[in-house]
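ugh ok so i messed up the first submission bc i forgot one of the chains. this is the corrected input, ALL of the components this time, i swear. 331 residues overall. if the numbers dont match what u have on ur side tell me asap before i send this to the collaborators (the ones from the other lab, u know who)
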Amino acid sequence: MNRAILLDKRPVGKPTLEDFKFIEEENPAPAEGQVLLKTLFVSVDPYLRGRMSSAKSYIPPFQLNEPIQSGIIAEVTESRNPDFKVGDFVSALLDWKEFQVSDGKDLVKVDGDAASLSSYLGILGMTGLTAYLGLTEIGKPKAGETLVVSGAAGAVGSVVGQIGKILGCKVIGIAGSDEKTRILTSKFGFDAAINYKTSPDLKTDIKNVAPDGVDIYFDNVGGVISDAVLANINQFARVPVCGAISLYNDTEIALGPRLQPILVRNSVLMQGFIMFNYATKFPQAIKQLTTWLNEGKLTYTETIVNGFDQIPQAFIDLFEGKNEGKMIVKI
Ligand code: NDP
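and heres the new structure output, hopefully the right one now
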């Protein structure tokens, strides 16, 4: 029998295992023109939390009693589609199922010899593209500027900081443990890193490591961390707003500092974005990321969790900061 994971309840606050339901179903068989896919690696991402609520967004909500979908690397195990052969590896937005069929339209072939298969879910996939395009298109870094990254030890943040260094910035990361801040400076080359969970005064700690102020703030988390960074923002700073994970589980709209005076006073550009806004630039971005990877200028880390039944827990663990780099479930 095949296994699938459905959305059983819309989470209220932080998601729990009870929000998901495992079912068994008949093994799927490909019809003419279809392929059978075996799931190998599943990406769990903070943005899936938004799709679990019924609120209108840039992407439709998941339906109750329907499978959750996310980025998946799968292997073609049967093919009745001339464009694919058995043994091909593909990347696509697919259902949380062990096996599924596809007509092949949205499948992108990936080369397991050129890079590790899981990297197509991270540095060479959505999170790498998000980091590169958000930073270069909105952040527009210039050598000598100071870049602050929140969620810095995560999938997007760890890449943003490294690109900032490649482009000549002074880079400061904010993350949620001493182990993470250590990795930021030792492995990813950040100039400084702050543990927001132990900092007695984040605004002052940022000022201490960024005495000239912040020129670019790549915001992955929102909330009070962002308030502290914006209190140090420079004139003509750019703020790519990538995500707001600290607020995703809120049941009421949080109140914070009113930002308009800060933005006006300093002529700050603050812009939210979705990586798909830059879809035409994906090929160029992948080329650049691959070049930097091959040159050894860029590195990445993954937290790999094993087993299909661990997918919901791995997703929930994102909100506890249990990952370093990209959180991936290996089936
Ligand atoms: P991460 O790999 O960064 O994982 C999430 C991390 O967020 C955790 O490890 C944790 O690290 C941190 N975190 C969790 N809860 C909180 C909290 N309450 N306050 C502060 N930090 C918290 O995920 P991604 O790199 O995949 O995503 C990062 C952000 O980018 C998310 O907000 C996501 O929604 C967004 N995103 C946006 C895209 C776009 O197109 N705009 C595309 C992809 C992602 P720690 O231990 O440091 O707390």
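quick check: The first strand starts at residue 2 and ends at 7. that seems consistent at least. Residues 45-47, 126-127, 130, 151, 153-157, 175-177, 180, 220-221, 225, 242-246, 273-275, 318-319, 321, 323, 327 surround NDP (CB under 6 Å).
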